[in-house]
Design a protein that fits this description.
The protein is an alpha+beta fold. It has helices at 2-24, 65-73, 85-88, 100-104, 108-111, 164-170, 181-185, 247-252, 274-282; strands spanning 26-39, 45-49, 56-64, 77-83, 94-99, 115-120, 123-141, 147-153, 157-163, 177-180, 193-199, 203-206, 209-212, 215-217, 220-227, 232-244, 253-257, 265-272, 289-292, 305-307, 310-311, 317-319, 328-334.
Length: 344
């Protein structure tokens, strides 16, 4: 029994010695590391790696054997390096060389309790920029749609958040945000006011090209327009002519034409609302020419007078201009009155 106790004590001491040795022995290793640099989330400063920046760095660490072994066995270590606004907002915009040894020393999430001894290359080439808010006009591109009232926006400016370096390049090149009205008004009802909510994309057009903004406020604006009603035309081959006389005039006078065999129908071409024109062309709706003859005193002395026919066209339909519509030379001739009972 005493021998068994001695063996157990020896094993316990041996294990303690090994653990203590592991805690005391320091190891050094070179680790491959990829680094992504950025600005503070929701901050105004924007940081990105320069085009010339290295993609992979060699970080030399030291620490307990177990810690170093764990890092080494994990392969390439990805690191996201965040530069706070307060640390860089007073610096000028443009290139910045970030000293990596000091920047990585506090990143316990990536390197645990190991100490950063050195980094190769020692700096990361970055670029500093800043987000700014500027007012940009909103303009409307009509497209191929025909308008009775041209499209417009109720709010003619919006606020865009954009990189300061980008805006400096485009400020003198007529920056604006364009709305493609055709995409909103195509297939909308014609000949009536239309009010739509249009989404404003964070894309700025300039005289030298198109640029992206980070965001735009507000995200929608109100777009208004009235579409022109599309008209169609058709030819009506035989429109009858009606002469309008009061019953009293008709009893006393007859109509006489200067021209021989005057037309009894007319051929006309009309233009207007498609549905109404189609009804006329198909004969579903009838039309006729009207010649209204008023006071016979205007035809005194038996002379002829010119009468132009008028047409009872439906609302939204009219005659096509520059077509020849004949006029009629007419006079009224007194009818022979029947003799009365006393012979007068």
């Amino acid at each position: 029994m005493q021998q068994l106790r001695l063996l157990s004590t020896t094993a316990l001491l041996t294990g303690f010695i090994w653990v203590s040795a592991d805690q005391l022995v320091t190891e050094t290793a070179d680790l491959p590391v990829t680094i992504v640099v950025r600005g503070e989330p929701n901050g105004k400063m924007v940081v990105s790696a320069a085009e010339s920046a290295s993609e992979t760095f060699t970080v030399s660490v030291s620490g307990r054997q177990a810690d170093v072994a764990a890092l080494r066995d994990g392969g390439t270590i990805p690191v996201v390096l965040t530069l706070r606004d307060e640390a860089i907002q007073t610096r000028g915009l443009g290139p910045l060389n970030v000293p990596l040894r000091d920047a990585l020393r506090h990143m316990t999430s990536a390197f645990g309790d190991c100490v950063i001894e050195s980094v190769k290359p020692p700096t990361l080439a970055a670029v500093i920029d800043r987000l700014i808010d500027v007012e940009v006009p909103v303009r409307v591109r009509p497209g191929s749609v025909e308008y009775a009232v041209e499209p417009r926006v109720d709010q003619d400016t919006v606020t865009v958040t954009i990189l300061q370096s980008t805006y400096a390049d485009i400020e003198a090149s007529n920056p604006r945000i364009m709305l493609d009205a055709e995409s909103y008004f195509k297939n909308q009802p014609e000949d009536e006011p239309i009010k739509l909510s249009a989404r404003v994309e964070p894309t700025i057009e300039t005289d030298q090209g198109t640029y992206s903004a980070v965001e735009v406020t507000p995200e929608t604006v109100t777009l208004r327009a009235t579409l022109r009603r599309h008209l169609t035309q058709a030819t009506i081959q035989a429109v009858p002519i009606k002469f309008q006389l009061s019953p009293n005039i008709h009893r006393q006078y007859s109509i006489e034409f200067r021209q021989e065999n005057p037309d009894e129908t007319l051929r006309i071409t009309v233009i207007g609302i498609p549905e109404e024109v189609d009804r006329l062309a198909s004969g579903e709706r009838k039309t006729f020419a009207v010649i209204a003859i008023g006071n016979p005193g205007t035809l005194a002395g038996g002379s002829y007078d010119f009468y132009e026919p008028q047409f009872n066209l439906p609302a939204g339909v009219r005659l096509v201009e520059d077509q020849a519509i004949p006029s009629f030379e007419i006079r009224l001739v007194p009818r022979e009155q029947p003799a009365t009972a006393d012979g007068n």
